[in-house]
TrEMBL record:
The keyword Protease does not apply. Coiled coil: none annotated. This is Sodium:proton antiporter. Residues 16-415 form the Cation/H+ exchanger transmembrane domain. GO terms for cellular component: plasma membrane. It is found in: Cell membrane. The lineage of its organism: Bacteria, Bacillati, Actinomycetota, Actinomycetes, Propionibacteriales. InterPro entries: Cation/H_exchanger_TM, Na+/solute_symporter_sf. It comes from Nocardioides agri. Pfam families: Na_H_Exchanger. It is a multi-pass membrane protein. The chain crosses the membrane at residues 6-24, 31-48, 68-86, 98-121, 178-200, 207-226, 246-274, 300-318, 324-348, 360-378, 390-411. The keyword Transcription does not apply.
Amino acid sequence: MTADLVYLVGGASLLLAVVLPELLSRWAVSAPMVLLAVGMLIGLTPLPDGMPLDPQENRATIEHVTELAVLVALMGVGLAIDRPLELRHRRSWGRWRATWLLLGVSMPLTIAAVALLGWWAGLAPAAAVLLGAALSPTDPVLASDVQVAGPQTGDLEVDEDDEVRFTLTSEAGLNDGLAFPFVYAAILMATEGAVSGWALEWVGWYLVGKVLIGVAAGVAVGRLLAYAAFRSASASLRVAERGESLLALAALVSAYGVAEVVGGYGFLAVFACAMTFRSAERSHDYHAAMHQVAERLERLLTLFVLLVLGIALTRGLLESLDWRGAGIAVALVVVVRPLAGNAGLLLAGDRADIDRGERWAIAFFGVRGIGSIYYLAYAAGHADELGADWLWSTVSFTIVLSVFLHGALATPVMRRIGASRPGDPTPEPARTTDH
């Protein structure tokens, strides 16, 4: 019966992935909103039990499915960004200034604020830090409505001119990997005891070493694959000429595998690989073909996960939710993230070319999603106390709140921001087609 239910949910996800984008393209309703609602309705029906919904009993399955969804999204995000990042050019780094401030200022502020709220709610220090780390990154899977549309090809000079969409996209591509050091901090607190015993190891290895290794692995794999695809002496290896877009999947699996084997963060490696690959022959149509493959697989995985999450919500996942967990979720979405994001972006000043309205939009649209589920499942596999039902309920409720609130506001807010810039073309509608 379990297998039959999985096939049923998978078939429904595939069907919805085909029809929802066109159905929702004219309304301020996102596919994630619909999928969660449908899943919740299914959960209320008398269907027999059997699906792997209990996070305690099916932690490993949840971890790997959500991990794959995030990886595919990171590859798609890396290929979609048009603005180049040249590691040896200071001016190129400066054009990413808003992104660096969101990562270096806003993200730590968010982790600290949520951890303090968790501690106030009665969590042990390790669980409080995990809650902050899991809910700190914005999600590349569910944030498509406020992200760039995809790689622009065919021009000699390819760049990204929408600061709001670019900043939110680049932040989502990087902060998933950068949340890992803080997840490890929670794991070490739960398993190793006093901070003084592992603080130096955490800074040197988990905060710095694994980040650098992950980025280096991704850059190396990206350069190797780009050389083979575009410039190899062997025609059989120049897959760009044939338009073999499945290289996108080979690239993300290779980058992730190499990074994990050598001890780096695989999420960062996948994003770095995609960015590096995109830097080769930037205007080539092959990038759009690769992005399309990643985008479609991401859509399918996302809808499947959200449908199952919706079913779980009305079949016991929220049983441990109390006013403290709901309060933390509301505080994060409407207070902590907007204030922390705005605090970071204020430091960018005029150099980021972001006006006041755009700054608040970037600060507000910190979508929480599938990445948070992955981090919670990952940490629970290393320490049982980090997989408490209360944590699962609180994280799940935060995702639901974010999906519905951000999903409902994405289209009108992005249109208003686009219209507020004099001389700008009519803004594109929110990308409900990406789900």
